[in-house]
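Homework-ish question, so no full write-ups if that breaks the rules, but can someone show me the predicted structure for this set?
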Amino acid sequence: MSIEVKNLCYSYKRGTPFEKKVLHEISMSVEDGEFLGLIGPTQAGKTTLAQHFNALMLPQSGKVLIDNCNTCLKNADLPGLRQKVGYVFQNPDYQLFAPTVGEDIAFGPKNQGLSGSEVENRVIEAMAQVGLDYETFRNRDIYALSGGQKRRAAVAGVLACHPRILILDDITAGLDPRGREEILEVVKKLHQQSMITIIFISNSMETVARLVNRLVVMNKGRIVMDGSTRDIFIRSDKLLEIGLEIPDIMHIANRLRERGFDLPPTLLTITETANSITDCLAKRQVSD
Amino acid sequence: MELTKNITLGVYMPGNTVIHRLDPRTKLVSACLLIVLLLIIKSYQAYALFFIFMAAIILISQIPIGYALRGLKPMLPVLVLMWFFQLFLYSNPNANTLFSWWIFTATDAGVHMGNLISMRVLFLFVVTTTLTLTTTMVDLTDGMDSLLKPLGRIGLPSHELVMTMVIALRFVLILAEELDKIVKAQMARGVAFDQGNFIQKTRKLFPVFLPLFINAFKRAEELIVAMEARSYAGSKGRTKMKTLHMSRVDFFATGFILIFTALVVLFILHFPTMIR
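A: Not a homework solution, just the prediction itself:
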């Protein structure tokens, strides 16, 4: 299942004096099975674009094809499309509303008209996928969850709908390092095990660097870069220019290059960089 | 799906016209006076005069008319309903029957009454919207605060009342934005809000209101903490960075409003009512 966006434009409060154009002529596509990072500084239009991916927003001009179905058409089955493209929101408080975790996760499958036992199976499966113990958390009060647990419950609520594409809107925001690691681990496993297409929205380069295969960089409502994660990070000056941070390890590599270390330009992770540095040092010793 | 697009209540439209620069007290008193006039006007002629006056004010203040009227959209069904209610329920002894069907009887007096009530609501909306579109929230608060101050002597906590009202007004927009997000989160999990019969549609709203209320309480609590963190303690010992002062324009404006009021009163005396 793929998503295709052509010349998409969108303005908030259109037709009022407060009109604000947030998407300018966006064209891109998401292929089946991809693990895509959508990054950009705040106000870049990431969320607005992503909400077009599952027909929560409809194009004002241009078009969006989800699974070859044009969302602008009058007879498009929008609720059906939204089931196929799951969307986890930035703030779990907007999404979780049932009294208990179990009931909240069951909400989506129930809307699909599944029977009681099928719904129960979906809940068990989704909770296992995000690493929430079924027996412990099934009857837990939503408001008694920690930030990280809330995020995982929100992801489970969407996974229980069995989406074929999963959009994760900045789900690490406001979490402590441990909560962040846990949820990232969940996301990584999801992509490896179920080969589901994932669109991961974030403004933290550190997070996406070691997660996704392809990056789409947005700034001020436009796509400024689109390519494999390594290709994007090679142009780190451009990223810094639009106000994005690059991972600390890349700063260290850049500093070392300035001092004459011959490091390859495609280093992303700590392990890779460490290996390259030791190689360099070994070479130096040999030449000495 | 953009709820906030249609809310013009409490929105300020930046501008630099005479109307924008007027002292908020002048604007508040004028608006009150206009509202009182609206409640006693009962003839088409007086309404015509009122219409010309409001049109002039809106032109001077450079408010985009289309935007100002957008806020009316959600009110329209209520207005229409009210018109029909008046049409069928109002009658007086010397009214002429227009038509009658089953238990419904429409008279010309009913038509006039319907028009009167609709125009009243419409103009009330126009007057208040014009006020809020041309006055910042801070100015409005200061103005009300200053106008209600004399009531403090009889024990009315004017500042606190005004503060409460302003916060309530602010929350209209905030809650609309939250509602927008919650509705989207539910739609993303397969709720089709526009499908089903009336009862089904209503039932779908319950999961929306729960997080809305909880978030509203949370926000209120955060607001309290934020206010206390900045040592807010009500009106006691509170001073203002910007003090209000009346300028020449305000005196002209007041004079202008008074002349208009006199004119309207003359009209009212001359054309007492459209319902005979």
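Now go work out the reasoning yourself. Hint: Strands of chain B lie at 97-101, 104-107.
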